[in-house]
């Protein structure tokens, strides 16, 4: 298990999906500013979506309208595409990398272990800002939620997990959180991995994760943090797949914009 101080190595912008693209665009503006503003070099990665051309065109136009002059779209649709040296070079030159929504398992199965995957981690270590929305948010963690029941109470079969991209350690992210009623499946994920923080991000809301292991909440809704480290009792290993879980002494925080969370000490606070 990694040390808590090594949860994150750089800056991440993790978006709960359905971010504002027409009005104030607060989240996308923060990402572009962190990535160098009009002097930034952005790469939009569309591997998660089954409509890469249309999705890439939308985000290219968005970022250009926000003043970024250099915006490239990387359509990686197969593992052969992900082995292209040109794709690797494009990522290594980027100051900001943006993963669109779609299917998180599609994204990891295409990129995992490829030159693009290696380049992504190398760019991150060099200081590139990595952002992802919806499925692009879920893949940030070492272990990700790939499927789960919505609006259901926590049960052993409520959630299915798989390896993520590993940019954020000891955290599991869920998106479209309040809008799709995903509290039960995030509680189930934390019950299975109590040392892992569960972070549920609402639509048009994001966390901006700093290298010091803290994150800031931005956007129009809220972030739910589930801390299971002090769970005293759970029946996760004894219950049947469809039986309700027992969990006691679970810590839960609801954090709208203007709040921060320290993942090392597991404490919330108001932003200064």
Task: Please summarize what this structure is.
By secondary structure, the chain is of the alpha/beta class.
Write the layout of secondary structure elements.
Layout: E1 12-15, H1 26-34, E2 41-45, H2 52-65, E3 70-74, H3 85-92, E4 96-99, H4 104-111, H5 115-126, E5 129-133, H6 135-138, E6 143-148, E7 159-163, E8 171-175, H7 183-192, E9 197-201, E10 205-209, E11 214-219, E12 222-227, E13 251-256, E14 259-262, E15 267-270
Parallel strand pairs: 1-5, 2-3, 2-4, 4-5, 8-9
Antiparallel strand pairs: 1-10, 6-7, 9-12, 10-11, 11-14, 12-13, 14-15
Helix pairs in contact: 3-5
Number of helices: 7
Tell me the quaternary state. single chain
**What portion of the residues fall into strands of 2 or more residues?**
25-35%
Which architecture name of the largest domain does CATH use?
3-Layer(aba) Sandwich
Assigned CATH class of the largest domain = Alpha Beta
**What's the CATH superfamily of the largest domain, by name?**
Class I glutamine amidotransferase (GATase) domain
Give the helix/strand class.
alpha/beta
Residues in helices, as a percent range: 10-25%
CATH fold name of the largest domain, please? Rossmann fold
**What is the terminal-to-terminal distance?**
32 Å
Q: For the CA atoms, what is the radius of gyration?
A: 18 Å
Biggest sheet details: 9 strands, mixed
Mean pLDDT: 95
Q: Count every beta strand, where a strand is a DSSP E run of 2 or more residues.
A: 15
Number of domains: 2
Secondary-structure element series: EHEHEHEHHEHEEEHEEEEEEE
Shape: globular
Strand order of the largest sheet: 3-2-4-5-1-10-11-14-15
List segments where confidence is low: pLDDT < 50 over at least 5 consecutive residues. Answer: 1-5
């Amino acid at each position: 298990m990694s040390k808590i101080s090594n949860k994150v190595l750089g800056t991440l912008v993790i978006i709960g999906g359905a971010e504002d693209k027409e009005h104030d665009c607060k989240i996308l503006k923060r990402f572009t500013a962190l990535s160098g503003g009009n002097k930034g070099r952005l790469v939009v990665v569309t591997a998660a979506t089954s409509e890469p051309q249309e999705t890439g065109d939308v985000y290219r136009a968005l970022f250009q309208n926000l003043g970024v002059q250099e915006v490239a779209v990387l359509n990686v649709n197969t593992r052969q595409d992900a082995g292209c040296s040109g794709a690797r070079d494009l990522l290594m030159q980027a100051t900001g990398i943006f993963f669109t929504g779609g299917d998180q398992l599609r994204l990891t199965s295409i990129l995992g272990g490829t030159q693009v995957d290696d380049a992504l981690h190398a760019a991150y270590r060099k200081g590139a800002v990595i952002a992802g929305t919806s499925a692009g948010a879920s893949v940030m963690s070492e272990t990700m939620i790939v499927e789960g029941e919505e609006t259901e109470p926590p049960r052993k079969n409520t959630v299915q997990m798989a390896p993520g991209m590993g940019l954020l350690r000891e955290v599991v992210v869920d998106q479209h959180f309040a809008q799709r009623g995903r509290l039960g499946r995030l509680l189930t994920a934390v019950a299975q991995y109590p040392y892992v923080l569960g972070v549920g991000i609402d639509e048009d809301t994001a966390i901006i994760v700093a290298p010091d292991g803290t994150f800031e909440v931005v956007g129009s809704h809220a972030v739910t943090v589930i801390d299971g480290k002090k769970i005293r009792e759970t029946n996760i290993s004894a219950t049947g797949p469809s039986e309700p879980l027992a969990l006691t002494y679970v810590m839960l925080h609801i954090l709208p914009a203007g709040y921060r969370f320290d993942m090392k000490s597991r404490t919330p606070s108001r932003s200064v």
